Amino acid sequence: MKYKFIIVIFMLFWAVMITRLYHVSIKSNFYYEGLAKENIERKQFIKPIRGEITDTHGKLLAMNQIGFSLSIAPHLKMKAKALNDVINILINTFPGLDKTMMLKVYKKHDSAYNHKYIKVVDFIHYSEMMGAYPKLSLLKNLKIEAETKRYYPYGKYAAHIVGYTGRSNQKENKKDSVVNEVGKVGKSGLERYYNKVLQGELGYEISKVTATNKAIEVLEKKLPKDNKNIELNIDIGLQKMIYERFGKHTGVAIVMRTNGEILAAVSYPSYDPNLFVGGISIKNWKALQSDLAHPFTNKFIHGTYPPGSSIKMGMALAFSKAQPSVLDTSEHCAGYITLGHSKHKFRCWSRWGHGKVGLRRAIRESCDVYFYNKSLKVGIDAIAKNLRTFGLGVKTGIDLPREYRGVIPDKAWKRKRFNQPWYKGETVISSIGQGFDLVTPMQIARYTGLLATSNLAVPHIAKIIDGKRVKPELKHIDFNPYYLDEIRKGMYDVCNVRGGTAFKTMSHLPIVVVGKTGTSQVTSIPQSTKKRLKESELAYFHRSHAWLTTYAPYKNPEIVITMLVEHGGHGGSTAGPMVADIYKWLYTHGYFTKESHSSH
């Protein structure tokens, strides 16, 4: 027994020794070989050049300015002559630089563990550097590297579409190796949505280096994949014209082909994206945040508004989907309805009523009572379900980040949101696009395209991405052809028949335009009010939003134009003249085919 124990101990001893010998002689060899390789080889990444963004005619909307960055060697003591000499030379050469800021940046990044040059100036323009380069390149503690800076030639006109780039943060650096090396990333708009494409792919160079980290031989080199450009459907000339046309008003205008291609999308007012490229100042940021017109908000996908009467065509189609025969009968409008024994009046916009009203006239004259009565027969759940299939209260799928969904309410939504039951009166006001209803202007534009063609299109701003053309995405929806035709005739009447709510502004255009006005209230009207005040008599922020959504030509739809004027009052009188001017511009610039001219 004693000998067996000694043998076991002996065998364990040698097992440990052999394992240790393997680790030291073989396994550790791989570790030290890798360590030695790191000491004699250096891998440097080569930054890709960010792709450009152009409009449909090739005009640059986002480009790269050529320049240089300046970095100072590490481990120079803060009060040492070497550091101050370099800083002072830079200040004398480029008077606009901030000495205090450069020293602060240097101190923040200098440490015993950092052996890389510290960037103290992000960008000096090419023209400024050329005269100074021969002198500065001789400074042994200064490193000059080629650099690019994003620039947006059209500034505020396309800010909500193109977006901007900015310095990346730690979270963004961890998620993307290219962002980590480049130090910049798309923060909003197309710059953010297509960041992966625009930023390209890193290249690298592996060099053999001496003990002092001096390169003596290039062992391997891979060039970056860059200049991945994007061409848009946007016409910047049209975009600029619409922006300037808004004048004293605020709001949104969208011009879209019926296949979903966005020709213009204006959110007014806007801001200059160039302010953000190098980091926006506190003063400029506060000015943007405190502006009551909300220039920083992309209103065509982040603004949610009651759709008002612009939803009535969709309501009628939702009724017919839920109950196929419900539109066969007309309704009588006496100027209001009541529910049960309640004395509360749900009023039509016409104080005196419209009398007997069928579908076409209900669209033309925007009779509220017609939709009140039909909605009570169908119910909110069936209405909401169908409206969502028409693209309302759901994301459109546009190629922009963080699109808002809006609200098309039903019983379940209210129960979840407020833990309250649904009331019939809420169905009534939802039927004319009020109450809880909230949509984005982009949803209204998309849904208008559906009314024109029976196809629900995904809106696309980009036309060609890195050489690949973006294909239209269309979903066909079947409707009762008779009801759809009646709705289209009603929209024709709105713009082309005397008494239509947009007749005055839309009836004398070179092509036949059809559409629907809408007035979405932002404050309720007390029951005691017998005669409503005119919109112009109300305080500005109490005035209704003005909608006008249209398509043209009537017989061969090609273009959708949707406009919302915030606190504009009536769609026909406020949005109408602006929409008419947009159609005239499109006609003059050849956006309508010869076939569409003959449809007048």
From TrEMBL:
Membrane protein topology class: Single-pass membrane protein
EC code(s) of this entry: 2.4.1.129
Residue ranges of domain Penicillin-binding protein dimerisation in the record: 46-219
Regions crossing the membrane: 5-23
Pfam family membership, one: PBP_dimer
GO cellular component, one term: plasma membrane
Single biological process term from Gene Ontology: proteolysis
Keyword annotations of the record: Cell cycle, Cell division, Cell inner membrane, Cell membrane, Cell shape, Cell wall biogenesis/degradation, Glycosyltransferase, Hydrolase, Membrane, Peptidoglycan synthesis, Protease, Transferase, Transmembrane, Transmembrane helix
UniProt cross-references to InterPro entries, sorted A to Z: Beta-lactam/transpept, Beta-lactam/transpept-like, PBP_dimer, PBP_dimer_sf, PCN-bd_Tpept, Penicillin-binding_protein_2
GO molecular function, one term: serine-type D-Ala-D-Ala carboxypeptidase activity
Domain Penicillin-binding protein transpeptidase residues, every copy: 254-584
Name of the featured protein: Cell division protein FtsI [Peptidoglycan synthetase]
Naturally occurring in which organism (per UniProt): hydrothermal vent metagenome
Native organism taxonomy: unclassified sequences, metagenomes, ecological metagenomes
